[in-house]
């Protein structure tokens, strides 16, 4: 799904769900979850596929790993001139998130 449909990225909120997992809440109140074919989906309730495990990288960035063992990713398709949010099997550049306090 194109990032434009997700709202402003800086308005996402990380919600602690249990000792090890978080959920990411969008500015419209929905949560990001892993859907079919590893597409990111918006959900009204944070359930099993919306639970993410944050892991701090040495460079200070944070990847978020789903229970489906995939990483939350944001990347740009230059050919389509669009940004996407989905889940990938690797933890590379597009899966590293920088967090800011608000």
Automatic annotation (TrEMBL):
<dbReference type="InterPro" id="IPR052883">
    <property type="entry name" value="Hisactophilin"/>
</dbReference>
<dbReference type="GO" id="GO:0015629">
    <property type="term" value="C:actin cytoskeleton"/>
</dbReference>
<dbReference type="GO" id="GO:0030041">
    <property type="term" value="P:actin filament polymerization"/>
</dbReference>
<protein>
    <submittedName>
        <fullName>Uncharacterized protein</fullName>
    </submittedName>
</protein>
<dbReference type="GO" id="GO:0051015">
    <property type="term" value="F:actin filament binding"/>
</dbReference>
<dbReference type="InterPro" id="IPR008999">
    <property type="entry name" value="Actin-crosslinking"/>
</dbReference>
């Amino acid at each position: 799904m194109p990032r434009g449909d997700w709202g402003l990225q800086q308005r996402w909120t990380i919600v602690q769900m249990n000792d090890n997992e978080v959920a990411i809440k969008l500015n419209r109140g929905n949560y990001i979850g892993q859907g079919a074919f590893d597409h990111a989906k918006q959900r009204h309730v944070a359930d099993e596929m919306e639970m993410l495990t944050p892991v701090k990288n040495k460079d200070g960035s944070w990847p978020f790993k789903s229970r489906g063992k995939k990483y939350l990713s944001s990347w740009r398709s230059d050919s389509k001139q669009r940004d996407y949010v989905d889940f990938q099997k690797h933890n590379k550049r597009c899966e590293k998130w920088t967090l800011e306090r608000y």
